[in-house]
Amino acid sequence: MFSTAESQFAIAAVREAALLTRRVQQQLVSPALVKGDKSPVTVADFSAQAIVAKRLAETFPEARLVGEEDAGDLTTSDEGRQTLADIQSFVAENVPGITTDEVCRLIDHGNAQATGTYWTLDPVDGTKGFLRGEQYAVALALIEDGQVVLGVLGCPGLESACQVNLTGPGSLLVALRGQGTWASSLDPADDTWQQLQVADTDDVAQTRIFRSVETAHTNTGQLGELSTAMGVTAEPIPMDSQAKYAVLAAGGGEMLVRLLSHSRPDYRERIWDQAAGSIVVEEAGGTVTDLDGKPLDFAHGTTLATNRGVLATNGKVHQAALDALQSIGA
């Protein structure tokens, strides 16, 4: 099914990285964690980026990686050096003998320019979800000339791509442009794949809208206005990270939206926050645009500079959502 070298690499790399982040979450995240302490997710972020960069360099030595992290702060303070030691310890479980210097070089391998053909990675999308022991995703995408052509999501807290199961095997989703979206387990021994399809719902009132658990991620007040303008009566689905895209692609909801916060009206989405998820939804039959109905354009560096926000739906409620967005001035 996935016969290209690129798809085989991405599947293996995301699976390995997602399982590594799960180990970090299980070993470092606890109820006793001091509020505001992000060290576990920092370890997971950097470890996952190092692993993906390592596998990319082994498979495609000339390929470029645009990642979210860089190793600059890991060697300039005692706290940073302790974090680096923890990262090295986890990465060494997959790459025996690796040194802290090699780990830093791998992390910084993700500092390429976002032009032409390149990979983009969000090693742990959903910081707060990770720290709560809930939903997060490892997101990797291949971009060619401004268009996402391959996307892979690793979602350790989902089962069958759409059901919350924090102790289950996790889900792996793969989307290839023109070849659909497929889901399997994060278990390396599981080689069964199921093609995903968005929900067939065209009743706007029954639209299940994903709402971020973290209120800072979107304009929650305006999201309520949008729901009212659409006449939605269905209960929303609270969920963070690109795991929302996975559930949308699998038919577990109909709409997610990234509105602009009043405090940050000029904010533009980062490419790694949207690339993998957007193709996963599109190849499952959904529609993804910005708030003005324009396709997402990944040809302008590390941000979606020409797009305002994001609207992703099952396609059948998309126009109703766009109309409602215009009516409330979003």
Automatic annotation (TrEMBL):
<dbReference type="InterPro" id="IPR006239">
    <property type="entry name" value="DPNP"/>
</dbReference>
<comment type="similarity">
    <text>Belongs to the inositol monophosphatase superfamily.</text>
</comment>
<dbReference type="GO" id="GO:0046872">
    <property type="term" value="F:metal ion binding"/>
</dbReference>
<dbReference type="GO" id="GO:0008441">
    <property type="term" value="F:3'(2'),5'-bisphosphate nucleotidase activity"/>
</dbReference>
<feature type="binding site">
    <location>
        <position position="122"/>
    </location>
    <ligand>
        <name>Mg(2+)</name>
    </ligand>
</feature>
<dbReference type="InterPro" id="IPR020583">
    <property type="entry name" value="Inositol_monoP_metal-BS"/>
</dbReference>
<dbReference type="InterPro" id="IPR000760">
    <property type="entry name" value="Inositol_monophosphatase-like"/>
</dbReference>
<keyword id="KW-0378">Hydrolase</keyword>
<feature type="binding site">
    <location>
        <position position="273"/>
    </location>
    <ligand>
        <name>Mg(2+)</name>
    </ligand>
</feature>
<dbReference type="InterPro" id="IPR020550">
    <property type="entry name" value="Inositol_monophosphatase_CS"/>
</dbReference>
<dbReference type="Pfam" id="PF00459">
    <property type="entry name" value="Inositol_P"/>
</dbReference>
<feature type="binding site">
    <location>
        <position position="125"/>
    </location>
    <ligand>
        <name>Mg(2+)</name>
    </ligand>
</feature>
<protein>
    <recommendedName>
        <fullName>3'(2'),5'-bisphosphate nucleotidase</fullName>
        <ecNumber>3.1.3.7</ecNumber>
    </recommendedName>
</protein>
<dbReference type="GO" id="GO:0000103">
    <property type="term" value="P:sulfate assimilation"/>
</dbReference>
<keyword id="KW-0460">Magnesium</keyword>
<keyword id="KW-0479">Metal-binding</keyword>
<dbReference type="GO" id="GO:0046854">
    <property type="term" value="P:phosphatidylinositol phosphate biosynthetic process"/>
</dbReference>
<dbReference type="InterPro" id="IPR051090">
    <property type="entry name" value="Inositol_monoP_superfamily"/>
</dbReference>
<feature type="binding site">
    <location>
        <position position="68"/>
    </location>
    <ligand>
        <name>Mg(2+)</name>
    </ligand>
</feature>
